[in-house]
Amino acid sequence: MNLEYTIVAPEDLHKEMFRLREEKNMDFLVHLTGVDWGEEGLGVVYQLESTKSGEQVNIKSVSPNREQPVLPTVSDIWEVANIYEREVYDFLGIIFTDHPDMRRIFLREDWVGYPLRKDDNPLEENPLRMENEPLSDSTVSYELHEDGTLSTHNNVIFEEDDYVVNFGPQHPSTHGVLHFRIALEGERIKRIDPHLGYIHRGIEKMNESMTYPQMLALTDRMDYLGAMQSRHALCKVIEDAMGVEVSDRVQVIRTIMDELQRIDSHILFYSCLAQDFGATTGFLYGFRDREKILDVLEETCGGRLIINYNTIGGVQADIHPNFVKRVKELIPVIRKGVDEFNDLFTGNVIAHNRMEGVGVLTKEQVISMGCTGGTGRAAGWHNDLRKHRPYAAYDRVDFDEITFEEGDCFARYMVRINEIEQSLRIIEQLIDNIPEGPFQEKMKPIIKVPEGVYYTAVEGSRGQFGVYLESKGDKSPYRVHYRSTGLPLVAAMDAACRGNLIADFVAIGGTLDYIVPDVDR
């Protein structure tokens, strides 16, 4: 959709955002995108939504001072803004006044420059450093005075007598190269400080020098268990911006592929959680069934993990002649596998003891923290975009939105297990009714997106995956920002883990279900 926004001056921003939160019930900060607008200045586009009415509001605020861009924090209004604003500070250098933790979140703390600025030259300013990265136990908070000057004061992250342990970045149960510093009181978690960026590849920056077809390959390499859905979102935002309508056949094929990818993701979620708990048999059962899904995807797409299937205007190849037959054969196999998962793990007393009442997040917390997908639905937040903002072929199928109220590890686990059945229901309704039509619309050799700002979101395997696209009418985007499904989940680890045992850390992280390359874009 074309993103229309209201411009608010920096000095009025916090007051206006607070008003929207209180008077309009804009309780969900969907997205926060930092942009370098050149001579206009550096600023942020905020996307807000009311979870009660579904109304959406977009706000743009720009700091004209490129030497010292300043905006007020909104992290006291929405918790997820804490990590979003740190990301903007890291890559664009915008200082958010009254933010409690103005440190970099991805790049080294001693990094020089801000890579997403159009005039930044990181290679010249950052020679190869062989020494260890400095890690501070305190951080700076900025205060803006009426005369326009800034003052700073230190906030303590860890006290001198805190007992701090490192979890990751090498530990397999961090589900990727993540580094958590954990302060303990006895065996109970007092505070968690995440350090990201170990796998960072600068995908958003690379997109600025790529053509639109070239960009597509990188989406598969972010959340590799939501590759179909992420690429679907990028193709959709480009198609919507250009006014391209894909065929009904493509819409149905994309929906089926998205759901096969979701089943693949949820089975791997189960498998890795079982392995984290020491239930290796569950891990092997899950991988056994997941292989069958990958076989079907490979026959049509040619890939198993990096799938490269959706294209601008359609899909790269029509479905294989065996596709319908093999998918129909797959459905009872997956159902039988889920029954075995439940017999082996779901009803196991050890699994119940380790998950029930552990890592509880309330509905208000998951909304404020932007934890969409299964994590939000496990706390009672109805947020499934397939139901509430249908796209592709989701408006023609019947399925249930799985929600629980407990908000603990077990509820998050059960959402994923039960969603496998709903995905199978969606596929069953479509697989015999794939309409005829072209699998690819005729596109120009060089694709140019009309000037404007656009946003599209889909329901990824672990939450809302969105694409913010700003175009100047060229063959490459001016700015692309992906709404990572995993970044809010990593940010929620501190709240979910506090007061729990260090032994619960693995269960909480596993059921929040973040994927690190999706976090590190």
Description:
It contains 18 helices and 16 strands. Helix content is 39%, strand content 18%. A four-stranded mixed β-sheet has the order 1-4-3-2. A three-stranded antiparallel β-sheet has the order 9-10-11. The protein has a three-stranded antiparallel β-sheet with strand order 14-15-16. It folds into two domains: 1-120, NADH:ubiquinone oxidoreductase Nqo5 subunit (Beta Polymerase, domain 2, 2-Layer Sandwich); 203-520, Cytochrome-c3 Hydrogenase, chain B. The model has no long low-confidence stretch (mean pLDDT 93). The chain is globular, with a radius of gyration of 23 Å. The protein is α+β, with helices and mostly antiparallel strands and 521 residues long. Strand 5 (70-72), helix 2 (81-92) and strand 6 form a beta-alpha-beta unit. Residues 276-444, 447-521 form the NADH-quinone oxidoreductase subunit D domain. It catalyses: a quinone + NADH + 5 H(+)(in) = a quinol + NAD(+) + 4 H(+)(out). InterPro entries: NADH_Q_OxRdtase_suD, NADH_quin_OxRdtase_su_C/D-like, NADH_UbQ_OxRdtase_30kDa_su, NDH1_su_D/H, NiFe-Hase_large. NDH-1 is composed of 13 different subunits. Subunits NuoB, CD, E, F, and G constitute the peripheral sector of the complex. NDH-1 is composed of 14 different subunits. Subunits NuoB, C, D, E, F, and G constitute the peripheral sector of the complex.
